[in-house]
Amino acid sequence: MMLRRAFSSYSTARAVAAAPRATTTATATAAKPVARATPARTTATKTAAARTATPTAVKATTTRAKPRLLQEDADFPMPQDVEIAKPPGLVGDAAPRDAAASEPYSSVAEEVPTSSFAAYVNYDSGSSSLAPLAEDVDWTTSYRGLSTRPFTPEAAAALLRPLSSEDVEIKPDGLLYLPEIKYRRTLNMAFGPGGWGMVPRSEVEVGPRIVSREWALVCLGRLVAVARGEQEYFDPSGVPTAIEASKSNALMRCCKDLGVASELWDPRFIRKFKAEHCVEAMVEHQRDKKKRKLWRRKDAKFEYPYKEVGKL
């Protein structure tokens, strides 16, 4: 009996001693989350404050007041609003009024240096064949000045002068011709450089092996002749060169109407010139060794790939 009472007292005392420890442990355990949550609340408070402050800063940036223009900037005109005034004394692109009143300008014909070809062209204002430069003529369709009056005797003499035997050439097939540059020299002697020109009258027509185009010869503001020039080509890359050669061919045909080198169409002149200045010879091609008959001038030789092997 005594042992039971003693054991009961021991158990009660042990339970009383253990109760404060459990309470302390529970209190510490409950306080621990509170201590950890406090920084989280502080961080959340700072983040919320930052988020709240950000729109305010943006709003302050977007609502920033625009700078006001100064009075002198507002009164200063923009370049596109400024009217550019012409210098005093000028009328468009013409000469000064004072100079025009005291020193009248000479005509175009008076400014042309006439010492080199004055014998061929009459530049007198009363009988000049020069057309007014300001007149606009569509030479692609116009026939202005055709057969209105003959050219001056000096120009006619330059156009109709007899051919020199040194000027005439012969092709290997026996056709006589005058180099195209000599047609241009004749026109320059008759009308002066710039006094004549070639005008296209049609588009370029390109065929499988030939190109052609119609051209007009205009001299001193007058239409003289119309002719179609043509030229063969053998490769598409040679079309531009053939087009330019067709222009020279048309020039030769137009000059025929002016009487330039008219002897080349005279059968008697052709036979006489061949007999006196040309020879037909047998030649051999250096690559294929074929022989054929070709013409040449007596004072010239055949060029490669032909080699003369005998005369006929």
TrEMBL record:
| Protein's recorded name | Mitochondrial genome maintenance protein MGM101
Naturally occurring in which organism (per UniProt): Trichosporon asahii var. asahii (strain CBS 8904) (Yeast)
A Pfam match is Mgm101p
Keyword list, A-Z: DNA damage, DNA repair, DNA-binding, Mitochondrion, Mitochondrion nucleoid, Transit peptide
Disordered: annotated span: 18-62
Protein family (similarity comment):
Belongs to the MGM101 family.
- What Gene Ontology molecular-function terms does this entry list? single-stranded DNA binding
Question: Is the DNA damage keyword given for this protein?
Answer: yes
> Organism classification, top ranks?
Eukaryota, Fungi, Dikarya, Basidiomycota, Agaricomycotina
Q: Name one GO biological process term.
A: recombinational repair
Q: What is its main location?
A: mitochondrion
InterPro entries per record: Mgm101
What Gene Ontology terms describe where this protein resides (cellular component)? mitochondrial chromosome
Query: Does DNA-binding appear among the keywords?
Result: yes
Q: Where in the cell is it found?
A: Mitochondrion matrix, Mitochondrion nucleoid
Q: Which domain of life is it from?
A: Eukaryota
